[in-house]
Design a protein that fits this description.
Number of strands: 74
Radius of gyration: 33 Å
Structural class: alpha+beta
Shape: globular
Number of helices: 27
Strand content: 25-35%
Helix content: 10-25%
Length: 1289
């Protein structure tokens, strides 16, 4: 492969010089209606007291909104010692997923196959119940026995997602999992009356109420879809139609969720798997026991009040050696798939390959899961089936309790295996199963549940889209073995009829944004305030600005180098006309400058050793002689780990400020630089200032503030005294207003950012060791929330009487004394801490900072002519979506001012324009739209120093002209975007969701979204920082569907798209589609999809970004890349990418093709595309960047797509989904000139799809680069940006 790569590179180089011109370019601790009213005529029904029969949708919320939790307990058992009492921070407010969110569309179709059908068999009748697309169906045993096509009877329908049906031992009740009401999956139970009696769509309904309810169905559903709230009668009708009128909830979880309940032999309780997330959103299972209403209780509608989280743990997570009980919640691996074995034992399966943290892409052939038995009386646990070979999961017991059935991988097959628990003998029964999902975190089960028939003469199991009967017989030892009759499918037809929400779509005018003369910078950072609070200074995408508080104009800080980026600005105490800040050079690294706002003169501070420095601050000393303190950091992602990495920490030096009449020198020397040992974390955010002139240094970081006593000098070990002032429990920013008393320094007030909001706490109420926190019930005494929608870069005035912060371009401020007017509101509000009052005390102003657009600069750079003509080209326009109409042979394209002015045939359309123009002969080569990476992670936005980005350059060199990042720091992500758009560095146009809206317990990014106000604020924070470029958000494993729906409603008002991630949870992914999310990011975890899901997905309007590179269900695609490409020696990669990242991809483990489930995913995607799904290319930002985008295109093609369809996914489909089709995605007149030019001989339509990487020129907004070198071709021929020296070889 190395020689092939070299040949490709050489080939590109030969084809490059065809141009003629007819006449002479930091990281902190985290990482949005309409209503139509109809007159409703009530329908007659049986007299009934509805309010006493029907539970309220919010009856799950039996716990107070605020509860103080103990943070430390003691006990011998880690599981019992640990208390699950931190997350969520706030309890959900009332919501019903069926009625508080509109579902105006109806989808209806028939299927004869299904995906991942979890089932059970009635213990007496043999009826089969199974779940499909969140509804439950039944196959009557009598019809199944006739072996004809059986009509599946719907027994549970509606918006709630229902699954995991299981019968009681006597067959009189059915338990199931449902997200009904609040949208969190709980266990429910209902009476079982038989398939026919429970058929909700029978042609011969005996229930008059049901018949009338069905008659009113469309009318009532339209009322809901148009915003008319449900009354008691309509609710009664709906629940009756859905089959859940008499169902009762067994569990009451509002944050954790519960799956796969199984009845105890007594029938009075169930065991189920309860899922816990840690800081990571992948669930760890535990076995929990819950009492179940009896038949009489259900018949008499007796309801028991269930407290949130009630239940009894039966099987807990085990901790690795050395872990304490306080770490119990961090354990990501636990028992799952529990079944009862007798009256006092449970059998379960568990991932035994991962000790404490889930890892991807494991070897299924060695085995991942094993099966265990635990005696609940003796607490003894033993292994029933070991992990190797092939693993063992989804345990099910025969009716007589003698035989354990499970699934495992055997070579390239998946086997149904039986183990006789009396003899210990194992029999492989059938190799016709789909591959299990032990390779992923699978709350939906590593394989669908299955069951033995009532007489144990067969197993009923899902496989290959069908429900199969696997006949069994008994051998001479009494062991169940495979019968001589081969397994056979049970033909069925199910009628799918479901309500769908409107898919969240929008269109964004990027064309207007980029073709105007200027764009705004909206994300600011590094806010500092002068002594009296009259001015602030801040960084705006590498430029320092000063804003006078209350005034409109903004002043750019004078600098010595207009083309260089600047950062870390601060005022000089006592001389507020002076600004000290840092200048960055990609070759010389950091220099400090002092700027005089009055004279406009800038001075360079010389004598600073070569290195990376930040946060300079001058002492509060009188006169011109000052001390300077600053920090040095080591290497980082963009600048490398090669140069100047030693000596990290705090430094002090001496300088002499220029006098007012100084005109002789524009430099200031730093003398006597010395290192000061400290506890400052140089990887964290830092806000420093001197106290007592130069005797003490106040250091404020993400979660701590302390004073370094410089005046006292070091101790005998060279250490300086550190005086702690405040600590944040989960804060991402923390600053203090220090005060001194007889006992020393303390924090008079503490401002901190907790979960995106700004809070103020009185320091006087803190005891030693207290940590400031905003969790209701455990919040710091006297805490006030001061931000309405959020904020960042909090800072105090020097006297501590006023605080400032940013939210987007809005500068907020609050005079502390004004909080007195809200003291009563603050004290009475233990959840939101008085914000309803405080918001009226806040002052804010909008700051307008603009820069030229790249197209404006392009026109300037082009001087006499901004026209480019590409002729003799094979134009692949992607305009129609049909290959035969989108190919123009001998094509001509005219680009004017960065915009496509004309496209067509030279003979038929516009001739080459007269006058000056740059002409490019394509020599018959293909010209295609620039590629769009819909799911691209990268990390350079988090770099503290504003270095040019090799990541951005690499993406562009490989033809990606538009990036969509589904997870980034909101502020830093949009700062990086502005740096590209303002010309500080080259790269694709950037769109980002900012911070993910995260359901798991990770400080800094966790969000509960308990009400509509919180949903609005979550999206407003993104919108504020990105303005018109903030087009999307990402909910990431939010456990409550109510939270997700609230966000979707807010997104409609704020014109934002939703690009969620389900984290390998198939059931959640399906609700994303039903609820109308824009895409589902990553493939569904079940690789092989069948007609139920294929049709739902295709007709819903939701797009798919499968990311085969990190595909679920098997080995990641990236490992295939490592094994088939000579990555470390690829010349182009070595030209653009960090070599250390390439080197670690040198070796790979040989893995058979069937280990790569991505090929099954690719096949499923191809089938969906054929049905009309918009698919996209997203390479997940996996290294090597750029190359893997083209490998993702290769993987997408493997499922049977034509090259054209793959390119469509990379261009026009992506643009449509992201709402960018008015600007990019096709080669069309009056669109931005984003395109790729290929050398002649590269047939990207009919040849090897891998050749899409062999690009001759890349064009972004009309600016043209040589794709092999990223040297600019036009308009600034020969221009090439200089990057930091980040490679050692």
């Amino acid at each position: 492969m190395a020689s092939k790569a070299a040949d490709n590179s050489a080939g590109i180089a030969i084809e490059l010089p065809y141009i003629t011109t007819s006449a002479q370019r930091q990281t902190s601790r985290k990482s949005t209606a309409f209503i139509r009213i109809f007159k409703y005529l009530a329908l007659c029904s049986a007299a009934i007291t509805l309010s006493s029969i029907l539970p309220t949708p919010w009856s799950a919320l039996t716990q107070n909104q605020v509860s103080k939790v103990p943070l430390r307990v003691t006990s011998a058992d880690p599981a019992s010692e640990w208390r699950d009492n931190v997350w969520p921070l706030r309890q959900q407010t009332p919501w019903d997923i069926s009625t508080d969110f509109p579902f105006p569309r109806e989808l209806e179709y028939d299927v004869t196959e299904g995906t991942w059908l979890r089932l059970d068999v009635h213990p007496k009748s043999g009826d089969i119940v199974f779940d499909m697309l969140g509804d439950l169906y039944c196959l009557p045993a009598a019809e199944v026995a006739r072996k004809g096509l059986t009509k599946a009877r719907p027994i549970l329908l509606g918006v709630p997602f229902d699954s995991d049906p299981h019968f009681s031992p006597e067959g009189d009740r059915l338990v199931f999992r449902s997200d009904a009401e609040l949208g969190v999956e709980n266990i429910w139970v209902t009476l079982w009356k038989g398939c026919e009696a429970m058929d909700l769509r029978s042609d011969d309904l005996a229930d008059d109420d049901l018949r009338m309810a069905l008659k009113a169905q469309k009318f009532e559903e339209d009322l809901l879809a148009n915003g008319l709230k449900e009354d008691h009668q309509r609710r009664y009708n709906r629940l009756l139609r859905e089959g859940r009128l008499n169902a009762q909830r067994v569990t009451n979880e509002t944050y954790r969720w519960v799956t796969d309940a199984r009845f105890h032999p007594s029938g009075n309780k169930v065991v189920a798997t309860k899922w816990y997330t840690s800081g990571r959103s992948l669930g760890a299972g535990e076995g929990w026991e819950y009492p179940v209403p009896s038949v009489t209780d259900l018949q008499e509608r007796k309801r028991v009040n269930i407290a949130v989280g009630d239940g009894k743990r039966t099987t807990s997570r085990t901790l690795p050696t050395g872990w304490s009980s306080e770490q119990y919640g961090d354990q990501q691996i636990g028992p799952e798939q529990h079944v009862w074995y007798g009256s006092d034992s449970v059998i379960y399966s568990k991932n035994v390959r991962d000790a404490s943290a889930f890892d991807y892409s494991k070897d299924v052939h060695q085995g991942i899961y094993a099966i265990f038995q635990k005696n609940l009386t003796t607490e003894e646990t033993k292994t029933l089936v070991d992990v190797s070979p092939g693993g063992a999961s989804r345990p099910e017991l025969s009716r007589d309790g003698r035989t354990l059935a499970f699934v495992r991988r055997v070579r390239d097959k998946e086997a149904l295996v039986l183990k006789d628990l009396s003899t210990g003998t194992i029999h492989h029964i059938w190799y016709g199963l789909n591959y299990d999902l032990t390779t992923v975190s699978a709350p939906m089960g590593t394989y669908p549940s299955f069951a033995f028939t009532p007489s144990d003469d067969a197993v009923i199991i899902w496989a290959a889209g069908q429900i199969y009967t696997v006949p069994l017989t008994t051998n001479e030892f009494g062991e169940k073995v495979a019968s001589s009759t081969s397994p056979y499918p049970i033909p069925f037809v199910a009628h799918i009829k479901t309500r769908l929400a409107e898919t969240r779509r929008d269109e964004f005018d990027v064309f207007k944004l980029e073709t105007q003369d200027t764009q705004r910078v909206r994300a600011f950072k590094e806010l500092r305030v002068d002594d009296n609070g009259s001015k602030v200074v801040f960084q705006a995408a590498g430029v320092a600005y000063v804003q006078k508080v209350g005034e409109k104009s903004v002043t750019k800080v004078p600098v010595l180098n207009e083309s260089a980026p600047y950062y870390s600005p601060t005022f000089v105490h006592g001389m507020d006309h002076l600004i000290l800040h840092a200048r960055w050079s990609d070759t010389r690294f950091t220099s400090f400058e002092l700027a005089d706002l009055q004279s406009g003169i800038a001075y360079e501070l010389i004598g600073l050793p070569f290195g990376r420095y930040f946060s300079p601050v001058l002492c509060e000393c009188p006169g011109l002689g000052r001390q300077i303190a600053f920090l040095k950091s080591g290497g980082d992602l963009l600048t490398g780990d090669i140069l100047a990495t030693a000596g990290v920490g705090l430094y002090i030096g001496d300088i002499m400020l220029p006098s007012e009449d100084s005109t002789t020198s524009h430099s200031i020397e730093i003398h006597n630089i010395r290192f000061v040992p400290s506890d400052i974390d140089t990887e964290d955010r830092v806000n420093m200032r001197f106290l007592e002139k130069n005797k003490k240094l106040l250091v404020q970081q993400s979660s701590k503030a302390f004073i370094i006593d410089l005046g006292a000098g070091p101790d005998k070990f060279g250490k300086y005294t550190h005086i702690p002032l405040a600590v944040g429990k989960m804060s991402t920013e923390l600053v203090v207003a220090p005060t001194v008393s007889k006992v020393g320094y303390r924090a008079e007030n503490i401002a901190f950012v907790d979960f995106f909001h700004v809070y103020l706490a009185p320091g006087g109420k803190l005891k030693e060791g207290d940590e400031v926190w905003s969790r209701p019930g455990n919040a710091t005494k006297g805490l006030a929330r001061v931000s309405l929608d959020g904020g960042h870069d909090v800072t105090f005035t020097r006297d501590g009487k006023k605080i400032f912060w940013f939210l987007g371009p809005y500068l907020h401020s609050l005079e502390i004394f004004k909080l007195q007017e809200c003291s009563s509101a603050i004290g009475k509000d233990p959840v939101n801490f008085g914000i309803s009052c405080v918001k009226d005390q806040i002052s804010y102003q909008e700051i307008v900072v603009e820069h030229s657009t790249d197209i404006a600069r392009l026109k300037r750079d082009a001087e006499d002519s901004d026209q480019v003509v590409i002729y003799n080209a094979t134009l692949l326009t992607m305009e129609t979506g049909q290959e035969r109409w989108d190919v123009i042979q001998g094509g001509l394209m005219i680009i004017r001012g960065g915009v496509i002015a004309s496209i067509g045939h030279l003979a038929q359309d516009e001739a080459i324009p007269h006058g000056t123009a740059t002409a490019i002969n394509a020599y018959g080569g293909f010209v295609v739209p620039g590629f769009i990476d819909v799911h691209a992670h990268w990390n350079g936005f988090a770099n503290r120093y504003p270095a040019k980005s090799w990541e951005m350059e690499t993406f562009l060199a490989y033809g990606v002209t538009t990036l969509h990042n589904p997870s980034a720091d909101t502020v830093e992500g949009f700062v990086e975007r502005s740096r590209v758009e303002s010309g500080k560095m080259i790269g694709p146009r950037i769109f980002t969701v900012g911070d993910i809206i995260y359901g798991a317990g990770e400080p800094g990014i966790h969000q509960d979204i308990v009400d509509e106000a919180e949903a609005y604020s979550a999206l407003m924070r993104i919108k504020a920082e990105g303005g018109p470029a903030s087009i999307s958000y990402k909910n990431y494993n939010l456990p409550s569907r109510a939270s997700r729906q609230r966000l979707l409603l807010a997104a409609r008002n704020l014109s934002m798209l939703c690009v969620p991630e389900g984290g390998m949870n198939q059931d959640w992914d399906l609700t994303y589609i039903i609820d109308g999310m824009t895409t589902v990011e990553h493939a569904l975890p079940v690789p092989t999809l069948y007609d139920d899901i294929l049709t739902l997905y295709a007709l819903s309007g939701t797009g798919t970004t499968p990311t085969h590179i990190v595909n679920y269900g098997g080995a990641f695609g990236e490992q295939f890349v490592w094994a088939t490409e000579d990555i470390p020696n690829d010349p182009k990669l070595r030209r653009f990418t960090r070599h250390d990242q390439l080197q670690v991809l040198t070796e790979s483990t040989a893995r058979p093709v069937h280990s790569y489930q991505l090929f099954n995913t690719s096949s499923s995607v191809a089938k969906m595309i054929e049905k009309g799904v918009l698919a996209h290319i997203g390479a997940h930002g996996e290294p090597p960047l750029g190359l893997n985008y083209h490998k993702e295109m290769f993987f997408t093609q493997q499922g049977g797509l034509r090259n054209y369809e793959v390119i469509r996914a990379a261009t026009s489909s992506a643009a449509k989904t992201l709402g960018l089709s008015g600007a990019v995605g096709t080669l069309s007149k009056n669109k931005l000139a984003d395109l790729l030019v290929y050398p002649p001989g590269i047939d990207i339509l009919n040849g090897d799809i891998s050749k899409t990487r062999d690009i001759r020129f890349v064009v972004r907004g009309g600016r043209i680069w040589d794709a092999s070198t990223m040297e600019e071709i036009w308009p600034l021929k020969g221009e090439k940006q200089v990057l930091p020296h980040f490679n050692a070889d």
